[in-house]
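User: Sequence for Cullin-4 below. Tokens please.
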Amino acid sequence: MIRCIFLVLDRTYVLQNSMLPSLWDLGLDLFRENVLSREHVRERCFFGLLNLIKRERSGDTIDRCLLRNLLSMLNDLHIYHTMFEKRFLHETEESYSIEGSAKRSSMEVHEYLIHTERRISEERDLCLACMDHSTLKPLTLCVEEQLISKHTEALLSKGLSHLIVENRIDDLMRLYKLFSAVKDGIQSLCTHFNKHVKNVASLIVLDVSNDHTMVQDLLDLKEKLSNIVTKCFSKDLKFVEALREAFESSINKRQNKPAELIAKYVDQRMKSGNKEATEVELDRTLDQIMMLFRFIHGKDVFEAFYKKDLAKRLLVGKSASVDAEKSMLSKLKQECGGMFTGKLEGMFNDISHSKELMAQYRQHVTTKKEGKVPNIDMSVNILTMGYWPTYPPMEVQLPSYLVKLQDSFKDFYLSKHSGRKLSFRASLGHCVLKSKFKNGNKELQVSQFQALVLLLYNEATCFSFLQIKSDTQIEDSELRRTLQSLACGKARILTKSPKGKDVNDGDNFNLNTEFKHKLIRIKINQIQLKESVEENTDTTERVFQDRQYQIDAAIVRTMKTRKTLSHQLLLTELYDQLKFPLKATDIKKRIESLIERDYMERDKDNTTQYHYMA
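Assistant: Structure tokens for Cullin-4:
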């Protein structure tokens, strides 16, 4: 009011005297010196202001206009930053320190995060509405320090795993947002995330009782966690790497078995019996499997089991999709290179060439009109020994007409490829037998061993175990499993006496002329050994044997180049060259073996030094 009355002086007299302050500035100086410079007045003013803010934080409705005007006055008097703001931030720190400890103890983590987010938002609104905007940054930092930074470890230890297990997407997004604002918050969150993933993934990998679900459980876990990283953690590269490292560490805590199970999982998905998946779904599944494959160190173990199962699918025609098989091969080649997939590609080429060869053979038989060849549709796959798994030969007694059929093809093949050796593997053969029963004709899909047994019943209706063994020459344990499948399975083409699941030397087997089945074409499943254990052990042992050869070759190659090398440097070279997990003890054994075979020798004066021997 005074300024308005004497405004003319401001415009005339003061303007002509530059040393004089304006009436407004003079009034502010006088008010500051005579009113707010008095401590008891200033303290009561500050107390009132802080009390208003405290009531606002408690949820009361206050006169924000009054608060804004008072704080604006302090700013005009140049004591807002120098006196009030420091006091305000100190009070805020104490208030939220107490509140943070109390709420953390009484609230669940997700509730605490919501509370913290709300508090930060409220403080921002109050500051922008009533205070100088420069206060916003230190105020926000103060609240974040007291509600987040001080409780980082407790919040993450108490609640992160629960939020992830429960898939609380919104709460995890809130957690990431809040922790992004504080120093080292993201690093702490990332460390705890990595630890959680390792704990959960390791439990899955090390739980031997659930091996049958391990791969699917890992795929489900990875998909869930990847979704969290994408949606909640903004695809932050720190979390992408933390997830990758945690999975790689966990999946390799148990050597070899995960690689084997991943290969078997692929086999299950690739088999034609897997009707659930479309081509698109199958390709997506293969991409997920490749993600797990990248984590395993023992990729040679995967390759061995994958090759064994792929061979079965190709030879028995059980692949769900040739395109899917080739897609998987392409993914493996892209990941590991042509050396890894060379033999697998060779297997596909063998199957393709075999189809062409069979077309030529059928044309040859038709053209030559070989009357001696029985009218039986035969298909032969020519397998290159180096590409395929090892199949032990098993000599069996074939009926004469099947021998003629084999000889006819063998003569044809050797006439086109002189100098090659061709041998048949009965264990891989399979047939379709047309059978006549009282209740109708059936087509039986059987293995070659099952076929040899059933063909005997064209001559008689009853045979003893020993007669069958003598007439077929099938190896004893294989014959017992074959007879179990024919006489003790779901489709009982034969009847056994005496009854029982086990096949003994004194048993007799009769043709079941009363056989009934709703289907015309029936697959007679072969009884499996706990084959899995024996066969899998053999496969694993072959991998270890191959590793020994690779270690030997790498040592000789390195020593031949370097001539003389210390033990430690040799280890370093081998770790760099070889792609499978290596133990120092295994390398030491191979070095000893090479020394015994005179490929290298120890230095006479320094036993940790080796010399190459030409």
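Residues 56 and 252 are 56 Å apart (CA to CA).
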